[in-house]
Amino acid sequence: MRGPFHLDKELLPIVRTIGEEAAGRSAPAYLVGGIVRDLMLGIRNLDLDIVFEGDAVSLARTLASKLNASLVVHEKFGTATMNLENGLRVDLVTARKETYPHPGALPVVSRGNIRDDLFRRDLTVNAMALAIDPKGLLTLVDEFGGREDLRRKRIRILHELSFQDDPTRILRAVRFEQRFGFRIEAKTLRLLKAALSNRLEERVKPERYFHEFHKMLREPKPWKNIQRLKELNGCGFLGKGVRISAAELGLLRSGQQSVFFYRRAVPHDEIEPALVELMALLYRTREGELDRFIKKFNLSKPHQVCLRQMRRWDMVRRSLSRKAVDPSDVYRALVEFRTETLLFFRAQKSGGLVRRRLDEFLTKLRFVQLSVDGEDLKRLGIEGSQRMGKILDSLLDMKIDGRLATREDELNMAGRLAKEIGPSR
Ligand code: CTP
Predict the structure, then answer these.
(1) Which of 126, 169, 216 to mutate to test the pocket of ligand 1 (most atoms within 8 A of CB)?
(2) CA distances from 181 to 2, 57, 63, 184, 224 (A)
(3) Predicted confidence (pLDDT) per residue in 303-326, tens digit
(4) Digit-coded pLDDT (tens) for 101-119
(5) Helix 339-347 crosses helix 352-363 at what angle (to 10 degrees)?
(6) Ligand 1 centroid to residue 127 C-alpha, Å
(7) Domains and CATH numbers, the chain
(8) How confident is residue 55, by pLDDT bands cut at 50, 70 and 90?
(9) Which of 91, 109, 116, 122 best tests ligand 1's pocket when mutated (most atoms within 8 Å of CB)?
(10) Rounded to two decimals, what is the model's pTM?
């Protein structure tokens, strides 16, 4: 575990400026949260979260002009986000105290000091701060034994009512345990299990709980997270019709392998791996139950699309396993699906042929483009959008099948097709 604390070079001038400006206002500023934990573990983290024991919005306004950053202010919450020119982001908040009127409710917030601000947090390893002095030097504030817990690889909540205050911490405890290969310590584990057997998670807005669950799916080893959650009987919130068994966990793992494959093969394409993983988990869920799931957790459009598309796997598998299939048939069978759905298909057990065709589509066929466009067709005297669309589709199929090598070939073929199809009516 590291210490003294060596900030990334990029961050140093920013942190120094924050330290100077805070000192000028005679109130301390602190680095908090994930970055403190990660600094101590020697993990790179560029997310600057700052707690200020003064007016954070006013501090942020001055800093933004000094650092040439754009600023988004949430006056009501006393928070501000600076976006720096180099792409870095700094979140600033006024130190606050939270009290929970009842479990799962949103907390009542008032102004506080750094201790209050740390005390409202989830786990000891996330509840440390680094005080920033005007020279940018950092001093650890560790009120709850976070450093010792990091050293002993322990996940621990700060107090007995922690899971009641915020049941999403159930998922967070599991997530950080699995991310770092730590262990939830005995008392925390007992309270976590009690929270689950009392179904405390049902008191949280489903969207909020699902948001935290989704973060598990975005972890480097999502299946470990889900496996552990299942072991703790923590998957019940997904609904009675959702069964997580070895089959789902296996599919989750191969889904991740598909994601690795794709990232290597097509590095410039942005995908959302959590979508692939969610399909793996819900594949065997019945249609009606799936609809309830979408509604309950108010899933985003991409989630909805994927969960509907995944049901077509059987049909896709059948059409891709036929022997006499041209590349353009593969293209037409797959072109309507989201990349994540295709990666989910790829994760399914299927013959080598189906897999090869999926891979060919994912890495090659879908990027084939014609050299001619509608304007070229117009110049050839071809008119009518439907007619043009038809011709362009046929040209693309032929190009995919390797029957058109040059632009010249495409133009000649367009002319022939126009004659074959006849004039537009
Ligand atoms: N936090 C909390 N309880 C929550 C959510 C967040 O106490 N339900 C606090 C934790 O101190 C956490 C910080 O807010 O460190 C930032 O939250 P988040 O961005 O979710 O987590 P990080 O710790 O930054 O983790 P990651 O590395 O996944 O970004």
Answers:
(1) 126
(2) 18, 37, 38, 10, 10
(3) 999 999 999 999 999 999 998 899
(4) 776 677 888 899 999 999 9
(5) 160
(6) 9
(7) 12-151 (3.30.460.10), 162-299 (1.10.3090.10), 310-367 (no CATH), 374-421 (no CATH)
(8) very high
(9) 122
(10) 0.90
